[in-house]
Every structure is written in C-alpha cells, then in structure tokens.
Specification:
With 149 residues, the protein is α/β, with parallel strands linked by helices. The chain has helices spanning 39-51, 66-69, 99-114; strands spanning 2-15, 18-23, 26-32, 55-56, 62-64, 72-77, 120-122, 129-144.
Amino acid sequence: MRLVIQRVSSASVTVENNAAGKIGQGLVILAGFSHLDDEATIGRLAEKAVNLRIFEDAEGKMNLSLMDVKGAILLVSQFTLYADCRKGRRPSFTDAAAPEKAEALYQKTIRAFKSYGIEVQTGIFGARMLVSTNNDGPVTIMLDSEDLG
C-alpha cells in the first residue's frame, strides 16, 4: 500500500462536474493498493497517517497530528502510485491490485480512517476525477507499507 499525503487548508474532488467530496483543513491522501496488501497493512498505515506530526503548533513547529487539529481526510484511490517506469516509456501497473481487490481495500481503508473519529470524504473508485488542493506548506509525505517492515 502506498499513500501520498498532502497537508491542505482545503481540497475537493469532482466527478463528471459533480462534487464528490470536500474538506477544509486536513489531509488529502492518495492511496494505491498492491496485490500483497491486506487489512493489517491498512491498519498500520492508517494509524501512521493520522498520527503523523505534520501540522504546526503555536510556535510554528510541526508537532501536531491530524487528530490534534481535528482535521479531515479526502481519500482518493490512485492505482498509478504503483507505476513501474524502469523499462521503456509506458508505465507498467502489474504490481497494482486488481480492481476488485483494490476497491475492497479502498472501502476497508475508509472504514479504518473513520474508526479514529475523523471525517472522511472520498472520490469515487475507478472514476476519472478532478482533485483540487490548496497545499499548506507545501507538505507532502509518502508512506509505503514496504518501508514500514
């Protein structure tokens, strides 16, 4: 599982000219799933993401988590996070989970984040989406389940 996490002052996702999700302060999380991912993987990365101390405290230091600032999450599924560009010019996506498995993992990821009492807005799995973000910082962090051991 790979997460690209962006600290935002606001963000939204639109599908076919209709608003699908919108948040104020919080995190935009782009989530990619591999065929090796399971519920344990989701639990570890969700816990890590909501507790990352990437929001500024009163002194301007990154000491606060999403939980501390009572922020929201805009979660968007993005299989292209598993693009393999080592050969040629066309990315391969063989490491990405099949759509059926990825959608089930995406739904479990939504539930995992909600279990922390966090507002979670989403895109629509498999849809072509327009994601608008107002990056705050900017702060962008990549989490990969392979790096967490």
